[in-house]
Structure formats: structure tokens, C-alpha cells
Amino acid sequence: MDEVIADTYGAMLDWLVDRHGARWSAEALHGRQIFDVLELEVADALRTAMHDGAFFADLPVIEGSQAALAAIAEHCELFVTSAAMEFPNSLGPKFLWLRRHFPFVDPLNIVFCGDKSIIAADCLIDDNARHFARFGGQGIVFSSPHNVDVTGYPRIRRWDEALAVLSEVFPAALAHSGVDAP
Amino acid sequence: MDEVIADTYGAMLDWLVDRHGARWSAEALHGRQIFDVLELEVADALRTAMHDGAFFADLPVIEGSQAALAAIAEHCELFVTSAAMEFPNSLGPKFLWLRRHFPFVDPLNIVFCGDKSIIAADCLIDDNARHFARFGGQGIVFSSPHNVDVTGYPRIRRWDEALAVLSEVFPAALAHSGVDAP
């Protein structure tokens, strides 16, 4: 969910610039998690802000994600999962955000967890490759500035190429999508 | 979670007796879900009460569940899952309830979902056998008045027999539990 369909990364950068000025450039964050480049007290302040669930209530939708998930849902059984237990107060706001921006996702197909090894699925599209280590299906990296150097998995750089990437990884499932493999 | 470690069933019966008098006996509910025996308007009122997350904040802990899960966690990787998406306002209260009563459960091992077919586990202990239909592991029924007639799965009637049942179903995992198979 975060950094894949909800622009949490952008909201974190906005928060940093608002509170601490533009000390973090896209270049400084290239290939690194935001929390890994912050001084300890700034990281603590950002975590405190994120522990207030309101941080997650109005995140921008990542471009193209609604159309792409709607298209995927025509061919596959679609679940949306978020490692929301890291910020428990985000549970309610995240649920409402999904209902508002992705009304076609069955609420019973929303999964809030912490350790995604518990997910039984053929495919997991995630910005954090750490979730793939014990995942039983195929991990697909969704590009975010922090994961540009991650290799070893298929990659979706933008949602408008998602169906093409999926049709290459799962040719049978997407056989009738009308999308040629890239 | 509900009716397995949290006594939601008892709280629902208490709510019915408080609001509508003792019209529902244990006998009337034997083998049936509470919602299946209520008149439409009473069912609607109960659902409304449950959509207020406070309903789930102070549920009694089911007898023996804390000791049993602590013992299981010594031998197995333990996750707690709840079909909480049916009552989205329960998400926050359920998380806090688990932290309070089951502090030894890693919060990253809490999973809130709707359709438990998404759970990748060797074993699922649940009062609702409907969750076993598409579950990839072994379902184990935890006894509740509504499921007394369910057959086809191993059954745990009380938490003090849980390790014995598990050691029969998964002899390798529980080999060193010190519990003899029943």
C-alpha cells in the first residue's frame, strides 16, 4: 500500500521540508530508506508524526494505480495488503482511504499485517524487497527512490506498465488481458 | 480471535439480554450463528452496536487461551488473525486488546483480514469452518456453541487440550512439548 498505491514517501518528504527545510534532496535519498538518512531526533519526530493515524488519512494516490488495479482485478483475485502494524493508529485511516480511493477492492480482501510472509498469494507487488525473502510466491518490486538498486526481482516502474510486466511473469493469468508482454 | 481467544459470543449474548431480555437461551443457539436466529431488526441493532469499535475494547479473554498460546509460541511461529474487516472500527480496539492481553505476541504477527484464504500457515485454529474451505493448511475447529455440529476437522474444545490436539496433528512440531498425544 505505502509507496505502491499511496504516496507515503512524498508525504514524508513534505513533512521533512515543512519542519526542517529542504535538507533532503532526491539525490540524498537515492537507494536509501528515508529513516536511514535522518538524524536520530528527526527520525524520532517523523515516527511520532506517523504514529498519529491522521498522517495516513489523506495521502495522494500514486499515479495510475487505480486504473491498473481495476484492470488487474478483471483477471486476478486482488488483495491489498499493508504492513500497517508498524503504525497501529494507521489501521482505521488506511481502511477508509482504501474504501474512498479503491472502492472496487472488496473490503474483505484488505489485509493489514506486519510480516508479509503470512500472505498466501501467487504474486506480491511491493516496494520493500525484504517482504519477498520468506514470501511463497513471486515478488515484484514497485519502484520507489529507496529501492532503485534492488535487483533479482521483476520490476514495475510505473503502474502503466504493470499489466505488461504481469503478463510476462504470469502469461496464463493475463492471457486475455489484451496486453503484449514487454 | 473472536470466539477463540476473545469472548465476543458472550458479549453478544450479554448485549441481547441487556437490550431485549433473556429471550435467547444457550439451547436456541446450539449449532447456529447468533445472527441466524435473531429477528431482522434485532440483528441490525446488534450489528450497529458492533460497528462501534468500543464493543471489542473490553471483551473477556477466553479461559486458558493466554497460557495455551504462550506454550504454542515456544514451539511454533505464532500469528493471531482476525476477520476484522467485517467491523472496520474494531481494528484499533482489537490491536490494543491483543497488546494488553497477549503481550508476548509480536505485533508484527497480528493479521487483520476478511477472507482468511489469504493466510499462509500450516494450521488455522478458528471457530468458523468456512475459513478452512480455501485455506491451504490444516484447519482446526475451536468449539463455540454455533459450531457444535461441524465435523471433518480436528477439534479443540478447550484451550487446556490445545497442545495435545496439536501434538497429534503436527507430531514433529510439538515433539518436544512434553505433552502426550491424546
Automatic annotation (TrEMBL), chains A, B:
GO biological process, one term: pyrimidine deoxyribonucleotide catabolic process
Entry-linked InterPro entries: 5'(3')-deoxyribonucleotidase (IPR010708), HAD-like_sf (IPR036412), HAD_sf (IPR023214)
Active site as annotated: 2
One Gene Ontology molecular-function label: 5'-nucleotidase activity
Family designation: Belongs to the 5'(3')-deoxyribonucleotidase family.
Full protein name: Uncharacterized protein
